[in-house]
Amino acid sequence: MSASEHQHAAWLEPGFWERLDRLEQCHKRAQSEHEQAQRGLERLTPREIEELRDAWARYCEVIAELDRASGEFEALHKCAG
């Protein structure tokens, strides 16, 4: 069987169509959630936007610190091991 015949055969398998249907449903759900989130962001007041930016900046700082600390733990573990 050639590569093109093998690809064609995969399209004919029922499992392919089931996976395609699940993927389409997942995509539609994610797209809908994205649109809802976007509408929610568009309704924010300027004060809420600033609070959100501040919270996001703080979150990023905390994650960076956590990443640094985790790296130090890992380096210490490698040196001790």
Structural descriptors:
flat, 2 domains, mainly alpha, 3 helices, 91% helix, 81 residues
Task: Write up what this structure looks like.
By secondary structure, this protein is mainly α. It folds into 2 domains: 1-43; 45-81. The protein is built from 3 helices and no strands. It has helices spanning 3-12, 14-42, 46-80. The longest helix has 35 residues, at 46-80. It is flat and about 50 Å long. The N and C termini lie far apart (52 Å). The mean pLDDT is 90.
SSE layout:
Elements: H1 3-12, H2 14-42, H3 46-80
Strand content: under 5%
Biggest sheet features: none
Helices and strands, in N-to-C order? HHH
Number of DSSP helices?
3
Average pLDDT over all residues:
90
Structural class: mainly alpha
Question: How much helical structure, as a percent, in the residues?
Answer: over 70%
What's the structural domain tally? 2
Chain oligomer state: single chain
Distance between the termini: 52 Å
Quick structural summary:
By secondary structure, the chain is mostly helical.
